[in-house]
Specification:
The complex is a heterodimer of chains A (395) and B (224). With 395 residues, chain A is of the alpha+beta class. Chain A is built from 13 helices and 10 strands. Chain A has a 6-stranded mixed β-barrel with strand order 2-3-8-5-7-6. The model of chain A has no long low-confidence stretch (mean pLDDT 88). Chain B has 7 helices and 10 strands. The chains are: A alpha+beta (395), B alpha/beta (224). The interface between A and B is medium-sized, with 20 and 27 residues.
């Protein structure tokens, strides 16, 4: 018998017992849907972390004061200059930030004002969209110039043609000299909602003092990250006159490493969740086996008739196996659709969008096929082995 | 005379019930020639059913030889027996044994399915068989929508559709009222008149009288 004949038989059989077929499939539907949805959500999380990793900047070390709170910071621009003089350092961007209201005409928005140096885009992986970035010259003379993040520019209604416009930052006039490309990312804070100004300007007009909040360091070679961390720590301890027994008043922090660890944890969790969900798939398979065994018992007489009129054992085997496969595969396909919808919905809510992974789909299809074969073969063999004489007389 | 289509040669069938051996048929020899209408008659327990199972290739003799339509079938395995059933035997049962929730047309077409006949040809031949038996207006009816007599007609059509060497009818009138039973017997006669070999198994001497030859079984042996 050809597969087409078998499928035709199987579908006409499922049509005559729709409710039972639907309930039997429900187990597989739930199993496949939860595997697809959980794996989808897990992969969304992982890819979200990965994209944030990429946006972090290459080989970034962040130096921040220990103990929290800007006032305790002992990091200075001189520290930053000293680090820049070390070997294997590609760039150093000290930062000092504050919040202020930025306005253009009647439009205003509150955002973070970050004072920094020309190395900032290199160290933190920003691209300039239009205009120029802060230069050494504007730093040297503490010019009131500003480079806007993409979000801030949009909020103020400033486009590429508006370069040179005067805006008000915390009540002082600043000239817009550049706009950054959006970096995206879905972190706690929008990395594109900021105004960059020369570091001296922030110290002079907004914060006071000569300390900086953080120093971003870009290491030239990823293999040198650990060595660079040690060198910087030694240098800063020396500069801050710390004795060997003193706790450091700063932290050198490798964010890339942390996010990489988070990403691997998330991948492991995905696997774990998928594994737990696939248990329900196995339960669904047992449901199929159960119903197929009942079906073989109920249709004993039909099997006897079919054998009497010429069906071989393998024809009966194929018929029942294809029925089980139809149930599991149909359930699997419905489950995939539901799982994709659920994971798309969660992705939408969580903000990382819809992550479609064809491998998950292929795996889900193969898995439900396997469920059909594993749990369908035994009932089908029972059917194929029935003795036609007793099957014909079965009431 | 032509070669016999059925030839039982000293056939015995002993059921192995654990410690007991129950002989159901002992040393039965029988020949049926093409075009014959043979009735195998006997009371219950005479070995009729065992005879029918062996003739129908549903069971194998414990000893002795059986050749059907030129094939020695006593030693065949299950798959080969299925092939012989498919090709050479058409069954008509007492309880019709139609496939439930399946239309008359599909019921009649099913034996052809196991012969590997294409879907289109199956439908054509099944329709022709049903029309020949006067069931042309009931093609889409399921068994529960048909009377006993009509169901048995469908069953006869199913037995005919493969053009088998013999038609094996097991108490075909047993579940029918006398009128419908007479119709089915007339049908079998008609088929026999067109040259088909028919073996009828019954306990009813009245029914058996319709056959051209009667074989009487008693206690697993042919007595007349």
């Amino acid at each position: 018998m050809s597969l087409r004949e078998l499928l035709r038989l199987s579908f006409s059989r499922l049509r005559t017992s729709r409710l039972r077929a639907a309930l039997t499939m429900l187990g597989v539907i739930i199993g496949v849907a939860s595997v697809v949805a959980l794996v989808g959500v897990g992969q969304g999380t992982t890819s979200n972390i990965t994209s944030r990793l990429a946006g972090l900047g290459t080989n970034l070390l962040t130096i921040s004061p220990n103990g929290g709170g800007g006032s305790t910071s002992k990091l200075t621009i001189e520290d930053s200059d000293a680090i820049a003089a070390l070997p294997t350092i590609a760039g150093v961007a000290p930062e000092i930030s504050t919040n202020a209201t930025v306005s253009l005409g009647r439009t205003s928005t509150t955002t973070s004002i970050i004072g920094t140096t020309p190395a900032y885009p290199t160290v933190l992986a920003y691209d300039l969209y239009q205009g120029t970035f802060l230069t050494d010259a504007s730093l040297a003379s503490d010019l009131r110039v500003a480079v806007l993040g993409a979000t801030t520019a949009t909020n103020l209604g400033i486009t590429a043609s508006d370069l040179g416009t005067q805006i008000s930052v915390g009540g002082l006039p600043f000239r817009v000299i550049g706009i950054l490309n959006p970096k995206g990312g879905t972190g706690f804070q929008d990395p594109d909602d900021q105004v960059l100004v020369p570091i001296g300007v922030v110290q002079k007009y907004f914060v006071g003092g000569d300390t900086v909040r953080t120093i971003g360091v870009s290491v030239s070679d990823p293999d040198e990250m650990t060595a660079a961390t040690a060198t910087i720590t030694a240098l800063l301890r020396d500069r801050h006159d710390l004795a060997a027994t003193d706790t450091a008043d700063f932290n050198v922090f490798n964010q890339t490493q942390l996010l990489a660890a988070a990403s691997s944890i998330s991948a492991t969790l995905t696997l774990l969740l998928g594994g737990i969900a696939s248990i329900s798939l196995v339960v669904g398979g047992i449901g199929i086996m159960n119903i197929m065994l009942v079906s073989v018992r109920e249709r004993t007489r039909e099997i006897g008739i079919r054998k009497a009129i010429g069906a071989r054992g393998r024809d009966i085997l194929a018929q029942f196996l294809v029925e089980a496969l139809t149930l599991s595969l149909l359930g699997g396909l419905i489950g995939i659709v539901i799982g994709l919808i659920v994971s798309a919905g969660i992705g939408q809510l969580a903000g990382w969008g819809f992550v479609f992974n064809p491998i998950t789909i292929v795996a889900a299809v193969l898995f439900s096929l396997a469920v059909g074969v594993v749990f369908g073969v035994w009932p089908a063999r029972q059917a194929a082995r029935l003795d036609p004489i007793s099957a014909l007389r079965y009431e | 005379m032509a070669d016999p289509i059925i030839s039982l040669d000293h056939v015995s069938r002993v059921y192995d019930m654990g410690r007991m051996h129950v002989p159901a048929l002992s040393d039965v020899s029988l020949q049926v020639h093409p075009g014959e209408f043979v009735a195998i008659v006997g009371p219950s327990g005479s070995g009729k059913t065992t005879m029918m199972n062996i003739l129908g290739c549903l069971d194998r003799p414990t000893s002795g030889g059986y050749s059907l339509d030129g094939t020695a079938v006593a030693e065949l395995d299950d798959n080969s027996l299925a092939r012989v059933r498919s090709r050479s035997i058409g069954f008509v049962f007492q309880s019709y044994n139609l496939l439930p929730r399946t239309t008359a047309l599909d019921n009649v077409a099913t034996p052809l399915l196991y012969q590997g006949v294409s879907r289109k040809e199956r439908a054509t031949r099944a329709r022709a068989a049903l029309e020949r038996l006067g069931m042309g207006d009931r093609l889409d009816h399921e068994p529960t929508e048909l009377s006993g007599g009509q169901q048995q007609r469908v069953a006869v059509a199913r037995a005919l559709v493969t053009e088998p060497a013999i038609i094996l009818a097991d108490e075909p009138t047993g579940n029918l009222d006398s009128h419908a039973g007479a119709e089915v017997m007339a049908l079998l006669h008609e088929l026999n008149a067109t040259g088909r070999t028919i073996v009828l198994i019954t306990h009813d001497a009245e029914v058996a009288r319709a056959a051209s030859r009667q074989v009487h079984l008693r206690d697993g042996q042919i007595v007349a």
